[in-house]
Amino acid sequence: MEQITWQEFEKTDIRVATIVAAENLEGARKPAYKLQLDLGPLGIKKSSAQITKHYKPEELLGQQVLCVTNLGKKQIGNFMSEVLVTGFADESGDIVLAQPAGKVPNGSKLM
């Protein structure tokens, strides 16, 4: 694995957000949800997430997740994703969300 410097890592802006809305993303090649995320001082941002195997939309409301906020926008089908919601692949390759162990203020930066 290629090593990066501390300064390179510091360029990645990873923050916590609370999911305030979740619904099926129509038109995606793989099953996904479109999420609305409260990033506190950064406002409400949109993201798509391929997390349909482990989560139902109604279960996601109020959950906090880790998001990369400085990758720029990405077109997903007919949806424009503004941040990247992070997670880990389980043994089947399905995504499990990366989440803080306890509640923290929306918009908090990963240290």
Overview of this protein structure:
By secondary structure, the chain is mostly beta strands. Helix content is 8%, strand content 38%. The chain has two helices and nine strands, in the order αβββαββββββ. A five-stranded antiparallel β-sheet has the order 3-2-1-4-7. A two-stranded antiparallel sheet has the order 5-6. It is globular, with a radius of gyration of 14 Å. 23% of the residues are buried. The model has no long low-confidence stretch (mean pLDDT 95).
Secondary structure tally, helices: 2
| Total beta strand runs | 9
Choose one word for the global shape: globular
Task: Tell me the distance between the termini.
Answer: 22 Å
Which stretches of 5+ consecutive residues score pLDDT under 50? none
**DSSP strand content:** 35-45%
> What class would the helix/strand composition place it in?
mainly beta
Assign a percent range to the helix content: under 10%
Strand order of the main beta sheet, please? 3-2-1-4-7
Question: What is the gyration radius calculated from CA atoms?
Answer: 14 Å
Sheet of most strands: 5 strands, antiparallel
Order of helices and strands: HEEEHEEEEEE
User: What's the overall average pLDDT, rounded?
Assistant: 95
